[in-house]
């Protein structure tokens, strides 16, 4: 990693005096950092919260605002759903795997009702109404949405219930969540230092290699922080660092990024430089530039006209399959009836790139082999006459034969209107990284021997959270706030 | 990583005296370690070579014995092929990417003739005759084979020439290669310590954090080594370490492993513990349990009867696509004529799991949706009548309509006879890891700042070599010997 400033730790013996001292030092003011700060203060610690940008919010504030919550929340019950922590756990293990973190998923599911209540008590709004169709973010202000719990294969693995709790907002809810948390942070007595970038950790080799502080940069000044009880890294992922992405997640190279521009992975690397372990660095969320309402009413095919997934799953799983299995060369095929049925608000301004009377014409326009779409749609329609999809098991609610005239949307060309799955110049997809520091459920960062590094904690997308390979929306704000809080408690206890 | 012995480095100041001293200490006696040892001795160094097993050879000795060489070797010329380093480089960048190591691939290609000559001079035999059909390892003793250079898309990217140089052998050639190299090592004056496992690196914090030795285990004794000029890690990959595989390459979990059983990644992790950088840890070679002669004469389909690749590429690329894109749920479909045309030696004892007069029966037997194979084979045959494959561009030499009776081979059931792509109980595939330590072309291990770690070198599958994501057979013995030699030279220079 070529960096202007070394990531190698500084020996505490070399520090003459510190510019700032606190009990708990938190690096990064997104949802994980804010949650950690609130709990650390609550536990009686002095807290300093650093943020490289000029204000708090981070990538969290730019997100859709979904939080994955369940087990029978007030929102779920008001919408007529019963739910259990056991079903939530089963779903998450299936959707976030293979090899999702069993300890984290179990705890996260069992304590989800308390997590929900903590958010509500701080003033986070969730409207008790359901958006009942696959989407990135509801075009309405509905507060509850499916994350594919009712789609194959998940509907056979766990009792389905919608668990996507979307922070009420006119549009993306992340900014509302961060406004609420920031207000609480401001009221709590936490000291916030903005425009301050983490450079290197400070290690005390005479005290069991304990992490005792941080060297940072404030504009052009180098400043030092002493943390008496602990440092918590909540700096986000590394999607903005092209070099790290190429080294660890080559399939994400060159795509758009969902972030605030500051997800450079430095928090991860400065911890690695003192021996911290990482996990699942190749994993990524893939928000493709496609409209879920179109995909589910039509079909998604690869460049050779072949379907590869049931289009009613969480659209991020379609995105992962599209990128990791088909190099993003994918198309949404639909007919006029499907297009007309999609509420205008749900179209995100996307119009088909090709329209044709026959599939032969359409496949020719796209440049697929002659017969490719005719073969796929013919086979799809033959079964759809009976409302069946024996290939991919899309729910019969969304299955009917597609009829002329037909249309095709080129996912690589992107969307005219950004969304949670939209892109900003990335060629059809916007991504972020899921892997990161290996932590315990209490936020302790583990070293390569599997032992906790004294004085070092982490949470949010700088860590490998609930996930291994799969991803469901709501699990980043979800594990960021949940495990951020736990890291704050643990650090305050020293 | 839970390990019986800590991977945390030992401070040189804590070492009272060393059990052994040498100029260059090499850890791991496979092809990379042997090549490094020969060059370090040639450069005038005392060399100690450690091996955890009771004798040298490592995973190299169990491999097929292919070495990727080109640019116009004597073997290529005797078989009537002209070749250039430029075409070799273009092919490798395409086949080993995305994001293959440009510096390493360039140097490796430009110096390939010298590399070939060094091997021949040491007595490595290559018979100048071509095996002209896709295979894991020729069933004959032919010394030259295609690695898909003549298959789409590679045939359009670089002028095709076969570059798979297979060490002459009755069967796998790795044992012959290692016998030749071991004889040279024995004659060279290198001291070999077998039954000796690396535990921790020794770091001199008073001398710029230089690596000055190693703590190892010899049966039940802890022994220390001082290396005056450098330590070279050539310990292989981490495919045998289930925990590391789950953390870094989740798609390889639970499969068979191509190794000597000792590829536990410890060499990588003890270097990470002193701040070494790694790359491409998620990448893997995937040897599926399928016969290339069957695949190329028939077709490979997923569990829904869909083709996904041209069957004339290097079979490892079919394996990667089968595992990473289709979860290994793949089938080889062929007809009686195809089966009969395959020489018996090339069948590796594999017989079809299902045979049927019609595709409707076959898809029913397999459990595919009704119409799945009929649709795919119908579309394939329609184009095959003209010798064309507009979907995947398999060479017309291998394209003809498939006719009743039909047969299907279930790749997940494995093969009755092991091969380079065979499995030993892994459910249809045997894998090894490709990622590892980030090194320069001279074998210097880089830290997280991108700077060489003084005194530490590495080569072979403990490093990220030529590759990023893709893999072609012959590039492990190839870069192991090539960059092993360079690491030996560099370490001897101190």
Specify which chain pair forms the largest interface. A-B, 49 and 50 residues
Percent of residues of chain A in helical segments?
Answer: 25-40%
Structural class of chain A: alpha/beta
What is the tally of helical segments of chain A? 16
Detail the poorly predicted runs of chain A: 416-425
Percent of residues of chain A in beta strands?
Answer: 15-25%
- The whole-number mean of residue pLDDT values of chain A reads 94
Summarize the biggest pleated sheet of chain A. 9 strands, mixed
General form of chain A? elongated
Give the oligomeric state of the chains in this entry, treating copies of one chain as homo and distinct chains as hetero.
Answer: homodimer
The CATH architecture of the largest domain in chain A can be named as 3-Layer(bba) Sandwich
- Give the termini separation of chain A: 32 Å
Protein name (chains A, B): FAD-dependent oxidoreductase
Cofactor (chains A, B): FAD
GO molecular function (chains A, B): steroid dehydrogenase activity, acting on the CH-CH group of donors
Keywords (chains A, B): FAD, Flavoprotein, Oxidoreductase
Structural summary, described in words:
The structure is a homodimer of 494-residue chains. Chain A has 494 residues and is an alpha/beta fold. Chain A has three domains: 10-62 and 174-285 and 430-492, FAD/NAD(P)-binding domain, CATH 3.50.50; 66-166, no CATH class; 290-413, Flavocytochrome C3, Chain A, domain 1, CATH 3.90.700. Chain A has helices at residues 31-42, 58-61, 74-78, 85-95, 102-110, 112-121, 154-157, 174-188, 242-248, 266-272, 292-297, 315-326, 336-341, 359-366, 372-384, 475-492; strands spanning 10-11, 20-27, 47-50, 66-68, 130-131, 144-145, 164-166, 191-193, 196-204, 210-218, 221-233, 256-257, 278-279, 284-288, 299-302, 330-335, 354-356, 406-410, 429-433, 436-437, 444-446, 452-458. In chain A, the strands form five sheets. In chain A, strands 1, 2, 3, 8, 9, 10, 11, 21 and 22 form a nine-stranded mixed beta sheet that branches. Chain A has a four-stranded mixed beta sheet with strand order 4-7-6-5. In chain A, helix 1 packs parallel to helix 16 (475-492) and helix 14 packs across helix 15. The longest helix of chain A has 18 residues, at 475-492. Chain A is elongated and about 75 Å long. The two termini of chain A are 32 Å apart. Mean pLDDT of chain A is 94; it is low at 416-425. Chains A and B meet through helix 9, strand 13, helix 12 and helix 15 of A and helix 8, strand 13, helix 11 and helix 14 of B.
